[in-house]
Amino acid sequence: MHISIKTVKSILTRSKVYDYVINPYVGCEHGCTYCYARFIKKFTGHKEPWGEFVDVKINAPELLEKEIMKRKKGDIWISGICDPYQPLEKDYKITRKCLEILSKYDWHIFIQTKSPLVLRDLDLIKRFQQIDVGFSIGTASEEVKMIFEPRAPSISLRIEALGILRAEGIKTYAMIAPTLPEAEGLVELLTNKVDYIIIDRMNYHYADWVYKKFGFRKVQDLELLSERFRDLGIQCEIVS
Ligand code: SF4
Q1: I need a labelling partner for 23 at 20 to 30 A (CA). Which of 3, 94, 150, 228 fits?
Q2: What is the SS3 assignment for 194?
Q3: Gap between the Cα atoms of 209 and 68, Å rounded
Q4: Would you list the domain boundaries of the chain?
Q5: Mean pLDDT, 10 residues at a time, the chain of 240 residues
Q6: What is the 5 CA–ligand 1 centroid distance (Å)?
């Protein structure tokens, strides 16, 4: 793993998904096979394979403190092209420091991760008036997860973390993106764990070789999947 400490010029970036996005890191140790964020290599000059480099935006909290005062209030997504709770967040705490700043403002925050490390920040998360904490989960199968996301936390740990957050009164969601083989089992696993579900029709062609190698078929009927959630009274939206 190649870790670099970087100072950046901005941190509260305009986004097409929410109003703003904060990416505390460039790169992601989870290195999922389908990850679209690897496009960033074109702009950063990284030669290492995706998942084997991370730039730590060391001045992110300091910048955020200044930028948030100049921006119009809006919704903030943490994060778009990295996992804000990837393993090195344990040591660098860039996400935590950014949340500390954001907790002084009444903006709506959407955290999205695959890691139960987010539970470390429950004390801070509870301070927000408007905060949704989401887990990306594309399959109910640990075996499928190991093929597509070998370095990300297990499905059971993600589901357990969602349960803990919800029991603490935090609004939770699951992002099913991409919809991996055996996603149908999520209907049972996510019941009573989330307030809502987002299914993203994202293009994940980077993982086409995985489908070929293991003879998997992509889940076609996302409408049917979302209907099964809705039948259980869980709000479910298909996007993009
Ligand atoms: S956790 Fe998210 S950002 Fe990180 S590699 Fe996987 S898909 Fe990409």
Answers
A1: 150
A2: coil
A3: 42
A4: 2-239
A5: 97 96 98 94 93 98 97 97 98 98 97 98 97 98 97 98 98 96 95 96 88 88 93 93
A6: 20
Whether the pTM exceeds 0.85: the reply is yes
Dihedral angle computed from the Cα positions of residues 219, 221, 222 and 225, in that order, rounded to the nearest 10 degrees:
-100
Cα of 149 vs centre of ligand 1, distance in Å, is: 8
Cα–Cα distance, 106 to 75 (Å, whole number)? 10
Mutate to test the pocket of ligand 1, among 29, 35, 139, 200 (most ligand atoms within 8 A of CB): 35
CATH superfamily of 2-239: Aldolase class I (3.20.20.70)
Task: Give the model confidence (pLDDT) of 153-203 as tens digits.
Answer: 999 999 999 999 999 999 999 999 999 999 999 999 999 999 999 999 887
**Span from the CA of 82 to the centroid of ligand 1 (angstroms):** 6
Distance CA 230, CA 172 (A): 16
Q: How far is CA 74 from the centre of its chain?
A: 19
| Ligand 1 and 114: CB distance under 6 A | yes
The response to whether residue 37 sits with its C-beta less than 6 Å from ligand 1 reads yes
Q: Are 50 and 151 in contact (CB under 8 A)?
A: no
| Structure tokens that stand for 180 in this block | 């991996």
The finding on whether 30 has its CB within 6 A of some atom of ligand 1 is: yes
